[in-house]
Amino acid sequence: MSAKQLQIAAIENGTVIDHIPSSKLFQVVRLLHLDETTETVSMGYNMSSRKMRSKAVVKVANRFFTDEELNRLALVTPDVTLVIIRNYEVVEKKQVRLPEEIIGLVKCSNPKCITNNEPMLTRFSVINPATGTLKCHYCNHEEELERIKLL
Amino acid sequence: MPTNSLITLAGYSKEKLMYLIAMAQEFERHPNRKILEGRIVATLFFEPSTRTRLSFETAANRLGAKVIGFSDPKVTSGTKGEILKDTIMMVSNYADLIVMRHFLEGAALYASEVSPVPIINAGDGANQHPSQTMLDLYTIYQSQGTLENLEIHLVGDLKYGRTVHSLLSAMRHFNPCFHFIAPDELAMPEPYKKYCTANGIRFTEHKDFNSDTISGADILYMTRVQKERFSDLMEYEQVKDAYLLKGDMLSKARPNMKILHPLPRVNEIEYCIDDTPYAYYFQQARNGLYARQALICDALGITLEDIRNDKTILK
């Protein structure tokens, strides 16, 4: 058995999401709706990593996400590594980038905000990407990325 | 979304604010007209506010519009579980304009996104109350002859008072100098002070409230120190009278100084001040009518030129 043997089997085609903090794995699953896909999804949890103390990896066969979908991950794990695989080869590596506007993903923590009382999509703008500060389009309440709750 | 909805004045330019003031001046000259004859204005008050509702309804009625709506949220279908969007869609079938007050923040903005007719925000929770800000601006302009370079003293509850927060933002175009006079518990919150700094608005802070601290004021804007804001009632008892404006405190006031208050007044201004030339809060309330006439017309696409050429004035 080689020392470099993969802990999760390689995929022929698809997307690898690496360097997810283990505690964020299930949020990644939710943000990409992986619980609804019919493709093969392999996941590793609490894996050892040289870069991180404990990481998670997700490999999704035959799925190539849009940038809009992948950028959602910046909400919970901005330093994730994205790798696009075709024919077992790495064809592209991507970084996620926090979008300017976030629609329907984040809950407003202001209980008196209309979005918490009406069946509607929430809408936040990123007012400071450096500090990760979001502002609710409706009630102007500000949220810090570290403390957000996903819908 | 109709572009004429008024949700907040925050994004309004100096020119737009002066345009609305010019419109309000026309209505002050001739408040009774039939310029809105044949139009229907709905006033939907999901939260009671008698003063604001009466002012909007008077504004619409004096311009010849008919008014429909509700003033008691208990009688609305919201209590049966109807969502806001459905109420708005239903009423927009009947009315040309919806004036709405809601206890939830962002309600008016959301309504404006789903409504085919313009929305005027008559207050959404602790968030915005633009018609109050507009009437404050109009009153300051009317009493001083200008909005430029004024010394504006804000007194009382500067922490929760949305009127004073909105005033800061609306006055940013006019090079004001603000003086924040409040107890520590109700001091102007940091984000608003940062906003002032970022927008070049000068300000000072005081805890003392006496004839010296207000001697340089052009405008003395009083607000109510509300008992329910205090976690420690002892603290409330200590500060409540410290922010009472007494007659003898006006000895050093500038001759042009005017006292404003969004009303209702409880224990902020001694009644003897009502008879002095400094008292301006009742004129301020009356100006609510002219400011709201201007906002209603602007929302309905009626221009200042239309109003100046209006042939429907009632003598």
Describe this structure in words.
- The complex is a heterodimer of chains A (151) and B (315).
- With 151 residues, chain A is mainly beta.
- Helix content of chain A is 8%, strand content 36%.
- Chain A contains 2 helices and 11 strands, in the order E-H-E-E-H-E-E-E-E-E-E-E-E.
- Chain A has helices spanning 25-31, 67-71; strands at 14-21, 41-47, 55-61, 81-86, 89-94, 101-103, 106-107, 123-128, 133-136, 142-144, 149-150.
- In chain A, the strands form 3 sheets. Chain A has a 5-stranded antiparallel sheet with strand order 2-3-1-4-5, with no helix packed on it. A 4-stranded antiparallel sheet of chain A has the order 6-8-9-10, with no helix packed on it.
- In chain A, strand 9 and strand 10 form a beta hairpin.
- Chain A is elongated, with a radius of gyration of 17 Å.
- The mean pLDDT of chain A is 90.
- Chain B has 315 residues and is an alpha/beta fold.
- Chain B has 2 domains: 14-129 and 287-308, Aspartate/ornithine carbamoyltransferase (Rossmann fold); 130-284, Rossmann fold.
- Chain B has 10 helices and 9 strands.
- Chain B has helices spanning 14-29, 50-62, 84-92, 107-114, 130-144, 162-170, 190-198, 233-240, 281-299, 304-308; strands at 40-45, 66-70, 97-102, 119-124, 151-155, 177-181, 202-206, 219-222, 258-260.
- A 5-stranded parallel sheet of chain B has the order 7-6-5-8-9.
- In chain B, helix 2 (50-62) packs across helix 9 (281-299) and helix 5 (130-144) crosses helix 6.
- The longest helix of chain B has 19 residues, at 281-299.
- The radius of gyration of chain B is 20 Å and the shape is globular.
- The interface between A and B is medium-sized, with 15 and 15 residues.
